[in-house]
């Protein structure tokens, strides 16, 4: 059997209990088709980047799945018909991560990215030299529509 990570987004106006019921419903679909569900993480109600079916927020849920592809296809088929599910994605993985996913870790625990120092500036400018603003040395060229 293959390993999958499955994330789905549920509508904002359902309750946490209804999200748990959805997880149990799809767990039953997978188990009846020979699969199993490992870790389930409820990431909570998060703001969407853009509206989906008039929803500005959604409940995010991650499921680690060990199932044949037919079971995953059946679960996805049933999700297409459920109007409480806004979006879903299933990704095949080589192995499931141990412990919490990146979404569940505290922000302080994650390694920093972006190459910025504590003041918000760049750490290393490399061989580009010091930064100059556009009009440090050059006089401004008058435009055609400038009135003098």
Automatic annotation (TrEMBL):
Q: Which domain of life is it from?
A: Bacteria
Region ranges (Disordered): 96-148
A GO biological process of this protein is:
translation
Keywords for this entry? Ribonucleoprotein, Ribosomal protein, RNA-binding, rRNA-binding
Q: What is the similarity comment for this entry?
A: Belongs to the bacterial ribosomal protein bS6 family.
Name the PANTHER family for this protein: MITOCHONDRIAL 28S RIBOSOMAL PROTEIN S6, SMALL RIBOSOMAL SUBUNIT PROTEIN BS6M
Q: What is this protein called?
A: Small ribosomal subunit protein bS6
């Amino acid at each position: 059997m293959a390993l999958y990570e499955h994330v789905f987004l549920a509508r904002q106006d359902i309750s946490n209990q209804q999200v748990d019921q959805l997880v149990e419903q799809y767990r039953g679909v997978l188990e009846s088709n020979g699969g199993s569900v490992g870790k389930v993480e409820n990431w909570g109600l998060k703001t969407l980047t853009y509206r989906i079916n008039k929803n500005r927020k959604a409940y995010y849920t991650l499921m680690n799945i060990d199932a044949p592809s037919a079971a995953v296809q059946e679960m996805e088929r049933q999700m297409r018909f459920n109007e409480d599910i806004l979006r879903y994605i299933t990704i095949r993985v080589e192995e499931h991560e141990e412990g919490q996913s990146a979404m569940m870790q505290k922000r302080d625990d994650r390694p920093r990215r972006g190459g910025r120092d504590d003041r918000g500036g760049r750490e290393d400018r490399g061989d580009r030299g010091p930064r100059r603003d556009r009009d440090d040395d050059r006089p401004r060229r008058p435009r055609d529509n400038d009135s003098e």
